[in-house]
């Protein structure tokens, strides 16, 4: 069972999500511990650190949501009644998508390495923030749509589609074929293994958690 789960394309997405979350947590702790514990905030003293902070925060947020969307798409494909669609759920394609997503967001958000600035709010008070003006307005609306609206919409869309596919498969269940991992034979041709059913539930729970 464990070997089968590790080799599952959806599991690769979860590994990418967990790695992204770990990086986000560790960097977040770094940015909190240094100012609160040691009275040091490199992001207000060093422009490079300031820009890296916003750049890392932006791409990690997009990586997490994109990988979760990718996992939901994979579950939608694996529950499809179309054999050609199911065949697209492969580890090779998932790896290509993960790498492509990482490169795309890393390049797309390179503007954060240019427009993040250290702003003086007082004689001795400085903050690391985006350059005031049109860029701040752009980032506000950009974050609203790219991080706030579009990811949940796509997750809900593919989540509903996956549930719908799974229910259709359940209504058309034929004689079950037994195996060491368990499976459900659908229409005499398509077999949904128990590991896939588990991953479907995990994806749906993660989607609900992300939205909440």
TrEMBL record:
The keyword Secreted does not apply. It is found in: Membrane. The keyword Transmembrane applies. The chain crosses the membrane at residues 12-34, 54-73, 93-119, 139-160. PROSITE patterns: G_PROTEIN_RECEP_F1_2 (PS50262). It comes from the Eukaryota. InterPro entries: GPCR_Rhodpsn_7TM. GO terms for cellular component: membrane. Residues 1-212 form the G-protein coupled receptors family 1 profile domain. Keywords: Membrane, Transmembrane, Transmembrane helix. This is G-protein coupled receptors family 1 profile domain-containing protein. It comes from Adineta steineri. The lineage of its organism: Eukaryota, Metazoa, Spiralia, Gnathifera, Rotifera.
